[in-house]
Amino acid sequence: MSNKTSGFSRFVKWSRLRRSLARFLDKKTTFDNYRKEAERLLLWSTIQMGKPLSSLTHEDWLVYQAFLLDPQPRERWVTSEGRKFPRSHPDWKPFAGPLLPASQRQAGVILNSMFSWLVNAGYLAGNPLALSRERKRRPPPRVTRYLDEEIWRAVKDTVDALPRETNREREHYFRFRWLISLFYICGLRISEISGATMGAFFTRRDRSGEQRWWLEVMGKGDKIRIVPATGELMEELSRYRRELGLTLYPIQGEPTPLLLPIGGKMRSLSRGGIR
Prior knowledge:
The protein is mainly α. Helix content is 45%, strand content 7%. Helix 3 crosses helix 6 and helix 8 runs antiparallel to helix 10. The relative contact order is 0.09.
């Protein structure tokens, strides 16, 4: 894609769209997701369809849904070999490849919210996604994303096979082991891991009077989430802390980040570093 389309600020001249995004300036993860989807649609509408967002119809939205399945022409829309460039770079492109079903659904939810806000604010006459977003009767929720015990054991065996000959390899090994535990045992998001400290662990008696560990994190939408910390998780925490030269268990309010960079610097690992 040419340099003239390589930056949001260069191409997004529609102030109304930027106003809808301004709602999320204090929520980085949400803002980044909304800006990404808004930018993709704006570039597609302007370059591919030759019309502004305000002129998009429901039929255009159906065409865009098909486009997300296979962005063409590829040389215009998709980065080569999935490489990532800064959005100001001449080789930046909006897509790394076709969107997976979950990403397609997320794009629809985000864009529907954006258009709804613009309609409610009086900037648009209608929402082109409205017909697609009519509520349907939802089936009972099902747990569809999980690892059975055999696969989880294979994951742990793979992690345990990582090299530990040098100090740096040991540090990588113990950090990666702790990260995998946070993802699987706690089900934490990347933003929750990056923003939490070990002092967010605390103990509380359950109904039977037994003392149990819990973890408090800032969840999606800036809502506090309390996550039960199982015995397996606390064992992994103790192993990670021992390797860092810390006490086995944290004290409430301790500022030590939940996940540290290699080298022992006392700062939180960034979201990009976790990825």
